[in-house]
Batch of 2 targets.
Target 1
Amino acid sequence: MTPATPGPPVRWPAYREGQLLEVAELQAEQQARTGALTRHEGSVHTPGVAFGLQLTVSAVPGITGVDIQPGLAVDGAGHYLVLSRPLTASLADGESSVTISIVWRAGTSQIELSDVPPPAPADRASDAWPVVLGQADVSSGTVTVDHAAREELELRATAITAPAGGSRVILGGHGGRRAQVFGVQLADGRGGFGDVTTVDGDGTGRTTVPASVADAVQVSGSATLAAAIPAPSAASPWSLYRATVTRPDKTVAEQLRLEVGEVKTGVDPHALELLIAQGAGPDLLHVDAGGTVTISGGLTVVGVTTVSGWATTGPGGGTGATTLSGLAASEANVLAAAQALLNNLTNTDLKASAQGVSSAGGTVSYTLHLASSAATAVTDIAAYETVVVGGSVVSRQFVAQGVNLSPAGTADIHRAIPVGGTANIAVLAIGAGQDGQPRAATLSFSA
């Protein structure tokens, strides 16, 4: 919105019955009407293009320039600048920043091209006030039109009301609301208007009527609930509300709580269930009236999980309660599984031994001998060797990978290790048996 500038008062000529009208009286009448129109034009809107007068690169064959479409503009003196038919303006190659304007001269509208832009609106003369349509450049026969300099007509108003009076838009401060810069209002049926949406100068927006959103809502900052959200009757006794709670460690936290009512006589327990589902598919999460949570799909935990209870297997395969005996039974099951794994890792289906061990010149040499039992083949064997000298690890590496042994098969890996002293050597060999279970063997010696 652009503020209006007060103009000189408009003087209207007075007439009487039987007066002989001369040229001066008729000129005064015209000047009064022109002054009133100028005052109106200067108060209601700024100078600029009302419609049309678009600049485009000329489509006329053989002409390098711009086409100007018909349209209407109003200058600072209130003249109507009219272009009634399309016009083509030629430009020379190499011309840059050519300002194209429409101006009132000699009682008619004219299109002008200038290498110098017009002065600021406050410095323009009322008898020749150009309205800028845009700028153009020509380089190597190519015309470029810049619309940034185009001067559009802007309304001057603090309120715009619909013709039927049912709504209006408030621009800037209005009715004692200096902080407000924008508002939309609806007629209240009593001759006044009520706010629908308001925006203050600091960017704060408010909507004071019920609103529905058909698509997703994204909030980049914080969202404040001015009051608790009442639960709809269909969701009762569930309720969603904000709360300030004090934790056991005395710290205070803000929470958004979804809460279910108490199970009472006459209340259907199914009415207290919480269900999260995906379309017509299976339930994703289900909370019953007793607080039991059921997750139908997989659960991925990124952080640490703390388990305060433990589901146990009761008599007959059912799920029992979380008791000390139940926890003991679960622990026994875990220990049994660990023992079975340990038995697989210490079986005799794979053996490792060091043969031909010798030490000379600071180098330890030996042959790692791998052997499988006659009962099973062991495949994809990997042997990892660790060498320690004087309490420090000097070597840690795989010395064999992908070794396959048939039943009662053997394999030898020759090793020569520069150690420079007494070395403690340990080897761990792991492979897979015919049943897919791991087979392992270890050896250690000093040299």
Target 2
Amino acid sequence: MRALRDPIPLDPNDPNYMFHATNDINELFFQARNIHLTKGSITNGAKVGNLDARWVVFTSNGTPDTEDAVTHSLGRVPRLIIPCVPDKAARVYDSSTANTATTIYLKTNVATVAWKLIIA
């Protein structure tokens, strides 16, 4: 499966505009159809299906709204963090510390929440 590319700007005055636009939409749907997520148990550092993403499993600290430094194995600074499976009602959000290629800095509004996140 080819990685998605940045869209090529299309000129609406081009006589082939609809052809190119339709091709781009078809390619997007084809690639979205081929996305697979993890089956089975979720473990820290595991690859997320066939995506360039990793699972991060951690428990936030005992004080709400306090920064947690969480290591990860993505190998680059994450562009996207998707909270998936908290063990209780809570919100996770970015801290003011910049994320790195090995560590993300997060805060949780509730104490001691077990999180499963996707980072990409």
